[in-house]
Amino acid sequence: MKKREPIGYVYLAPALISMAVLSFFPIAMTVYYAFTNFNLNHMEDYKFVGFKNFVDIITGPFKEVFAPTFAWTFTFALVTVLINFAVGLLLAVLLNNKFMKETNIYRSILIIPWAIPGTIASLAWQGLLNEEYGAINMLLKTFHINPLPWMTDPFWAKISIFIVNLWLSYPFMMNASLGALQSIPPELYEVAEIDGAGWFTKLFKITIPMIVPTALPILISSFAYAFNNFNVVYLVTGGGPARLDTQFAGHTDLLVSTTYKLTMQFYRYDLASAMSIIIFFIVGTISLINMKLTRAFEGGER
Amino acid sequence: MVGREYMTRQDAIVLWISRVIIWVAIILSLLPTWFIIVASVSKGGAFFQSSFFPKEITFENYIELFRKKSSPSQTLPDFVMWVKNSLIVCFGVAFLQIFMTAPAAYAFSRINFVGRKNGLKTLLILQMFPTFMAMPAIYGLLAKFNLLDNLFALILVLAGGSAFNIWLLKGNMDQIPYEIDEAAIIDGAGHFLIFRKIILPLTAPMLAVMFIWSFNGVFNEFLLSSLVLQSPENATVPIGLRNFINNQFSANWPMFSAASILASLPIVIIYMALQKQIQSGLAAGAVKG
């Protein structure tokens, strides 16, 4: 190409400076805090403590908080992505029917939950799932089903989180699947039909095997996103119901909301920082796998 | 799709089963919204959702949202204030982000400087550190400099340059033929003129989508906002609504419903109108040419 032009740095400056000040510096501070005892008891006189915080979290007194929270975060991310994808894919397959003339109308209606601001929708769900007054239990009553303890029972609180997340995210999965379906050559289905394949055979022998490789990067990044999903948990159940053995995390608290509580309620900056670093390593590994898969960094040069 | 255009018996059965499943999905996904609408137009303070259709429709709850509080102890929501705060933060962040992203994308697309080839990759990798990682430090620093509970501090915290946006926009700028630049250079134009008069106007649709996207993202942001903003006067819509509904659920539910509908409607409309562009923006980010 042409000669070097240092003017390029001037164009980059606003972005670079803001990233340095607002992302990298605080992250460096976080890494530093993770190795100190910066907490409510040591606001001014904190000092270096080495790996103590990490040891406390993984094998020490905070194991009680970390291990179950980690297990639930992992389960939550995995299950929620699979459910959302299954529902999204099913709807996409059903909508992708050449005989269905009104399919565009359905698509625009089904997309509505995606367009509603997620935080507001999550808050509304908190109300809908209210055990005494909420509309969902009212609805169950009209069908003569006993009201469910959506907020007070650990199992049903987890189910609530899955329901709300499905409602919020299936439109995205549906859209992504509809896009991916277009890449399957229609000839495959024609050949299958000549061989007498039915609807289910075509779904399991052609559609799913063809769509999963295309959808994999989306699934992995959704997994990473779900891992960090603070809003749904914090706004719907608030992490509750509370656990008896610890005050730091409730039954539905994810690692991120636990970090938030450690920072905001308990001023345990040291533990919160160490926790952030652990989460980063998990999510970072997932993202790396994803980049390898999508080969995001190949090409992209002019 | 090519192939047979007539329907066999089996196709007809599949079609009708599909329709029934889709109708059920539509009902299930609209039901929560319907409950909120019913609650928002129902009468009275204490609320007990007993009917599927409102017995009597009133817009009292909507009108109340715009009424001035006469005393701070009154449980009326400060809806107008929340909207004002949200608008300040959303517009502030969206403008700042465009201001930082556009020149950086231009540099990566058009200017040859040392580090250009690997710079963007490095930025993208560094971007993998999630925002919440900075949470304890941001909170600590803002507390130290007395910047907690400050809307402008929140704008700065949220507006940090986004490598992902730079990457998206650079891809968009790469598609503008370089010959246009060359013609301008022959006419004596420098980078700033090319950037302002050629590249910016041609990428305007993408910039608009990014603006809406970041607006929507900030409107939905809860974690950092609730970390920074503390007093009720500075609450944004989600924070105000959360405190309002957590205070006294049964009594506040009808007005909460009205407020959440009013707050969602503009975003829903924008989203529906720009659905195509937002999707293609997503696709441009996901698929590399």
UniProtKB/TrEMBL annotation, chain A:
InterPro entries noted in UniProt: MalF_N, MetI-like, MetI-like_sf
Membrane topology: Multi-pass membrane protein
Keyword Nucleotide-binding on entry: no
Keyword presence, ATP-binding: no
Record's keyword terms, sorted: Cell membrane, Membrane, Sugar transport, Transmembrane, Transmembrane helix, Transport
Transmembrane segments: 12-35, 70-93, 105-125, 155-173, 206-227, 271-289
Domain of life where this protein originates: Bacteria
Pfam families listed in its UniProt record: BPD_transp_1
CDD domains assigned: TM_PBP2
Occurrences of domain ABC transmembrane type-1 (ranges): 70-290
Signal peptide: none
Subcellular location: Cell membrane
Major localization listed first in the record, in broad terms: membrane
Protein family membership: Belongs to the binding-protein-dependent transport system permease family. MalFG subfamily.
PANTHER family: MALTOSE/MALTODEXTRIN TRANSPORT SYSTEM PERMEASE PROTEIN MALF (PTHR47314), MALTOSE_MALTODEXTRIN TRANSPORT SYSTEM PERMEASE PROTEIN MALF (PTHR47314:SF1)
Protein task: Part of the ABC transporter complex MalEFGK involved in maltose/maltodextrin import. Probably responsible for the translocation of the substrate across the membrane.
Name by which UniProt lists this protein: Maltose/maltodextrin transport system permease protein
Organism: Caldicellulosiruptor diazotrophicus
UniProt lineage: Bacteria, Bacillati, Bacillota, Bacillota incertae sedis, Caldicellulosiruptorales
From TrEMBL, chain B:
Keywords noted in UniProt: Cell membrane, Membrane, Sugar transport, Transmembrane, Transmembrane helix, Transport
Compartments where found: Cell membrane
Domain of life: Bacteria
Stored Pfam families: BPD_transp_1 (PF00528)
InterPro entries: BP-dep_ABC_trans_perm, MetI-like, MetI-like_sf
Coiled coil, from the record: none
TM region positions: 12-37, 86-108, 120-139, 151-169, 198-219, 253-274
Domain ABC transmembrane type-1: 83-274
Record has Membrane as a keyword: yes
Topology within the bilayer: Multi-pass membrane protein
Family, similarity comment: Belongs to the binding-protein-dependent transport system permease family. MalFG subfamily.
The protein's name in its UniProt record: Sugar ABC transporter permease
